[in-house]
Every structure is written in structure tokens, then in C-alpha cells.
């Protein structure tokens, strides 16, 4: 804005100056007038370059208007005598217009080029962020690969631990027979055997999880599977004085599943619920259909799970029990997902826990 005013003032002054030269120079110095006449091209071309077609033409018209009286009144204005001067006025306007047009077109082109350059830069930036993303994903993949190798090594390790564990347990049993029950050494060896058993359980569970056996999918009755689970755990529930109930599903429900695996998953959930529920509490199993899934809800009236623990219940080896392995829910999740289903735990401290299994309807 400021430069526009400055440029306009500059043009006005130069036109005024050149015109004054014309008006004030005596006519007999006609060779000077010939020179001054050409000076007008300077402001006209500048105006065309700065302001385009309209600016160039406006400037040349101003020059024409300012210059014309000089021809008409000082030179006499004879058409044939002063023809050259009239032609110069025509030239002013032609130069103003054409230069303005060209300058304008040039400017449009350069702004277009600028826009293209901007677009290119944006594409380049996008490309760069994308390639960065690819690099991070690659890094993640490499890490996953390392982890899976670690997992395989852990499985080998677990396998190697099992054999010496068997010998320790065997020899401990032989030693135990040397002492009478009640003897402190008998107790110690008992502890030793119990702890070996626990270690063995951890290793076995781990191996079972690490080596996914092929699943054999057949048509299974959900009702039958759940009834089997209730039968298997009724005694345990009675001993704990917990009311275990299966709300009979409406009609028979079928899923495509490996029955043994499915029972293992359900059993893990029910055992957790029984372990969490205090005397006099209840564990309820209910089923319903929703969104093409069978939904099986295992609800207990236990203490619930704290938010920080809730986020970790599916983590292998996460346990809050002194003799737990922390593999129950990790295995359960793996089994349910292998059946195309999902496993979810809803819990609030004080109100109990609900484990929800969803399996696709067939
Ligand atoms: N119904 C539940 N109520 C309260 N806490 C639960 C319940 N189910 C699971 N949890 C919590 O989740 C943890 C992990 O459960 P998970 O079954 O994986 O292992 P675990 O029961 O501790 O060990 P394991 O199943 O090998 O005996 C439990 O230690 C417990 O803190
Ligand atoms: Mg468990």
C-alpha cells in the first residue's frame, strides 16, 4: 500500500518534470524537445511494469493529456507539421497498454509458478512425514520380531526347566519319606515339593500358551458346555459357600468351537470369579444374543478390580494371588480370540466383576 503511493507520486512528479521541461524550453531548441519527448516512455513503462495494463494505459493517457496542449498551443498544432508528435502520443498509449498487458501476464504466470512450488513443498512435507511413519513402523516390526524370538527362547527355557524340576520333585519325595510328619524337616520338604509343583504349573501353562495347538472347530452347544462348567465347579462353590447359578439360555445356542479349549477358557473365568467372591456371595452365568454374537456374562459379587489392575488383567504373569500364575486370563483371551470372539472385563471396586465373552453365532 505504502509502496503504491510512493510509486504513484514518483510517476506524477516525473511526468510533471518532463512536461515542465517541454513547456519551459524555447521552441527553437527543437532537438531538446525531441529528447524530452522520449523521456515520457520512462514513467509509462514503469507504470506498466508496476501496475499492469490499467496502470500503463492510465499513465500514457495522463501523459497524452498533459503533453497535448504543448503541441496544440505552443507548436501550433498543425496536423501535417506536427504529425510526428501526434504519432508519438499514439505510441505512448500503445507502449503503455502492451507493456502493461505483458507485465500483467508475466505476473500471473509467476504467481502460478509460486503456487505450484508451494504445492510441491506440501507434497514433499507429506512424503517426509509418511516416510517417517514407515520408518517407525519398521522399527516396531523389528522390535516385535526381537520379542517373538525372545518368546521362542523363553519357551525353550521353560521346556529345559521342566526336566530338572521333575528330578528335584522326585528326590524331594524320596527324602520326605525319611522323616515323620510333624518333624520340621518333613515340613520343609513338603514346602519344597509344593513350590516345585507351582513352578511346574507355571512352566506348563506358559508352554501351553506359547505353543498354540491346532484348534479343531466343531459345532458345540453353548448350553452343554456351560452346564459342564457348572457341574465341574459346583463342589468348589459349595465349599466356598457361594451361590453358583446358570441362567438357562432361551433355546439351545450353537457356536463353532474346539470344545475342550472353550471349556478351559470358561473354567478359568469361573475359577477366578469363585476365588474372588467371599462367602455368601454369588456367581452368575447368563447368555444373550447381541449383534450376531452370543454374549456370555460371568458376574460375581466379589471385591472388583482396581482400575490400574484392570488394565493389566490380560497381561501374562499379572496376578494378585500369592499362588497364582497370572496366565489364566491371558490364555482365556487367546482361546476366545482364536474362536473369532472377544473377551472383556468390566469391573468396579465394591460392586463386583463381569467377564463378557462374545462368540459369533453360527
Ligand atoms: N472375577 C475377578 N474378580 C476380581 N479380580 C479378578 C477376577 N478375575 C481376575 N481378576 C484379577 O486378575 C488377575 C489375573 O487373573 P488370571 O486369571 O490371569 O491370573 P490368576 O487368577 O491370578 O492366576 P491363575 O489363573 O494362574 O491361577 C488376578 O490375579 C486378579 O487380580
Ligand atoms: Mg485365574
Automatic annotation (TrEMBL):
<dbReference type="InterPro" id="IPR004358">
    <property type="entry name" value="Sig_transdc_His_kin-like_C"/>
</dbReference>
<keyword id="KW-0547">Nucleotide-binding</keyword>
<dbReference type="InterPro" id="IPR036097">
    <property type="entry name" value="HisK_dim/P_sf"/>
</dbReference>
<feature type="transmembrane region" description="Helical">
    <location>
        <begin position="6"/>
        <end position="27"/>
    </location>
</feature>
<keyword id="KW-0808">Transferase</keyword>
<keyword id="KW-0418">Kinase</keyword>
<keyword id="KW-0597">Phosphoprotein</keyword>
<dbReference type="GO" id="GO:0000155">
    <property type="term" value="F:phosphorelay sensor kinase activity"/>
</dbReference>
<feature type="coiled-coil region">
    <location>
        <begin position="103"/>
        <end position="147"/>
    </location>
</feature>
<feature type="domain" description="Histidine kinase">
    <location>
        <begin position="156"/>
        <end position="362"/>
    </location>
</feature>
<dbReference type="Pfam" id="PF02518">
    <property type="entry name" value="HATPase_c"/>
</dbReference>
<protein>
    <recommendedName>
        <fullName>histidine kinase</fullName>
        <ecNumber>2.7.13.3</ecNumber>
    </recommendedName>
</protein>
<keyword id="KW-0472">Membrane</keyword>
<dbReference type="InterPro" id="IPR005467">
    <property type="entry name" value="His_kinase_dom"/>
</dbReference>
<keyword id="KW-0812">Transmembrane</keyword>
<dbReference type="InterPro" id="IPR036890">
    <property type="entry name" value="HATPase_C_sf"/>
</dbReference>
<keyword id="KW-0175">Coiled coil</keyword>
<dbReference type="InterPro" id="IPR003661">
    <property type="entry name" value="HisK_dim/P_dom"/>
</dbReference>
<feature type="transmembrane region" description="Helical">
    <location>
        <begin position="39"/>
        <end position="66"/>
    </location>
</feature>
<dbReference type="Pfam" id="PF00512">
    <property type="entry name" value="HisKA"/>
</dbReference>
<keyword id="KW-0902">Two-component regulatory system</keyword>
<keyword id="KW-1133">Transmembrane helix</keyword>
<dbReference type="InterPro" id="IPR003594">
    <property type="entry name" value="HATPase_dom"/>
</dbReference>
<keyword id="KW-0067">ATP-binding</keyword>
<dbReference type="GO" id="GO:0005524">
    <property type="term" value="F:ATP binding"/>
</dbReference>
Amino acid at each position: 500500500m505504502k509502496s503504491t503511493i510512493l510509486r504513484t507520486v514518483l510517476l506524477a512528479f516525473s511526468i510533471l518534470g518532463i512536461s515542465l521541461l517541454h513547456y519551459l524550453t524555447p521552441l527553437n531548441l527543437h532537438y531538446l524537445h525531441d529528447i524530452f519527448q522520449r523521456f515520457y516512455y520512462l514513467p509509462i513503462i514503469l507504470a506498466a511494469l508496476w501496475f499492469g495494463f490499467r496502470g500503463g494505459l492510465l499513465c500514457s493517457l495522463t501523459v497524452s493529456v498533459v503533453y497535448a496542449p504543448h503541441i496544440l498551443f505552443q507548436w501550433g498544432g498543425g496536423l501535417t507539421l506536427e504529425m510526428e508528435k501526434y504519432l508519438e502520443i499514439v505510441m505512448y498509449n500503445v507502449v503503455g497498454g502492451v507493456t502493461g498487458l505483458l507485465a500483467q501476464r508475466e505476473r500471473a504466470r509467476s504467481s502460478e509458478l509460486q503456487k505450484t512450488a508451494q504445492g510441491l513443498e506440501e507434497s514433499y512435507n507429506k512424503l517426509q512425514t509418511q516416510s517417517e511413519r514407515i520408518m517407525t513402523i519398521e522399527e516396531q516390526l523389528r522390535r516385535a520380531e526381537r520379542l517373538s524370538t525372545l518368546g521362542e527362547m523363553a519357551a525353550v527355557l521353560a521346556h529345559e526347566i521342566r526336566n530338572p524340576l521333575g528330578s528335584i520333585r522326585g528326590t524331594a519325595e524320596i527324602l520326605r519319606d525319611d522323616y515323620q510328619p510333624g518333624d520340621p524337616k518333613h515340613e520343609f520338604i513338603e514346602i519344597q515339593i509344593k513350590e516345585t509343583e507351582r513352578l511346574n504349573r507355571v512352566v506348563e501353562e506358559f508352554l501351553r500358551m506359547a505353543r498354540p495347538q491346532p484348534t479343531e472347530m466343531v459345532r458345540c452347544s453353548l448350553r452343554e458346555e456351560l452346564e459342564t462348567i457348572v457341574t465341574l465347579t459346583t463342589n468348589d462353590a459349595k465349599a466356598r459357600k457361594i451361590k453358583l447359578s446358570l441362567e438357562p439360555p432361551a433355546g439351545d445356542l450353537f457356536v463353532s468351537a474346539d470344545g475342550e479349549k472353550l471349556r478351559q477358557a470358561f473354567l478359568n473365568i469361573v475359577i477366578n470369579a469363585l476365588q474372588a467372591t467371599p462367602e455368601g456371595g454369588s456367581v452368575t452365568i447368563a447368555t444373550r444374543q447381541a449383534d450376531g454374537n452370543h454374549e456370555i456374562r460371568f458376574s460375581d459379587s466379589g471385591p472388583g478390580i482396581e482400575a490400574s489392575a484392570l488394565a493389566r488383567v490380560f497381561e501374562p504373569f499379572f496376578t494378585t494371588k500369592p499362588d497364582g500364575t497370572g496366565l489364566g486370563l491371558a490364555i482365556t483371551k487367546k482361546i476366545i480370540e482364536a474362536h473369532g470372539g472377544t473377551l472383556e472385563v468390566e469391573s468396579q471396586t465394591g460392586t463386583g466383576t463381569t467377564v463378557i465373552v462374545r462368540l459369533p453365532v453360527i
